[in-house]
Model the fold of this input.
Amino acid sequence: MSSEDKQKYCLMAYVMLAVSLAEKFNEQPYGFRRVLVTHVRANIQHRIMAKKMVDVYFDDAHEKFGRMLREQGYDSEAEKFQIKVLDARSKTLGGKHPDTISAIHFLAGTYWSLGKYADAKHLQIQVLRLRGRYLGKEHPDTIWAMGNLAITYQSLGKYVDAEELETRVLDMRNRLLGENHSDTITAMNNLAITYQSLGKYGDAEKIQVEVLDLRNRILGEDHSDTITAMNNLANTYESLGKYECAEKLKIQVLKMRNRLLGEEHPDTITAMSNLAITYQSLGKYADAEEIQVKVLDLRNEILGKEHSDTINIMENLAISFYHQQKYNDADRLEAQVVEVRKKIFGEGHPKTAKAVALLAEIRSQAKRFTSETESSEFI
Done:
């Protein structure tokens, strides 16, 4: 093809792909987007498009693709699209337009997925301020913005700030929507997760049992939100030392997600990782290792080596190696964790400090183990 033909047909394919995506993702099955994302990524790699046309006319298509790429685990590629969307809308619509604010919101979500929590917080504060000013403090979008900022505070370890915001969100949703509304139940769930982080496990368990009951009754046991509620309750059971209860629920979650979503869906991979953590708590380190090796391969392939979820599973696998006295394997993985966390979070971040401490413990135990092995004699 000539250069002009390549540009024309790539552009036509780009438009067709964009039109095939519904405005609301829940109107189409996940499997369709899973197939479509392959074609979108191929088109991105091959298209030759005039920059002005991309910036001025394609922000809606970019927004769709950015959301889909993030959903499918391609956060770095999603980020590039969403930055283009925000730049185009800021120039053509202005910073106060609802579509521009929406672009800020989606980019903040991708920053959060990439572990860029400080960047996410900066944008989410901006979204909350703008929505509060132009929509009102009790508008649903403003309340969602408040809830999203609270989740980022959780990720930054600012649990007291998260609890304050989530309590306000829950109070407003109870008052405006009622206790059986899905948004109210989501607010209950988020507050319970913060209670977990604050060590208020009894309070978290009480809320999560209620959330699971409501979602089972209103949505049904196969709904994704019901399965998420089951998983969250299992995590709290684990924090309370109820490991057998946690194991039973997590096995159920994994089976359901495999059946409904497939083994390569991000939620299924997360369920595998969560079950492995429970196996660790039960001392089943070989079982944990078997799962974690699979999860690490999948996350490396889908999310990339520096994604926060990839680094987390790498550290968990290092812990499984450590408890099986596979110190060289544990050292190799945890050294990578330390390097990436220093790069992303900085040396003073709690996650970096935790990784450094774990690596020191692994090396100390390895030295002690080597010393004991060398000094032992056969009788």
Observations:
- The two ends are 78 Å apart (CA to CA).
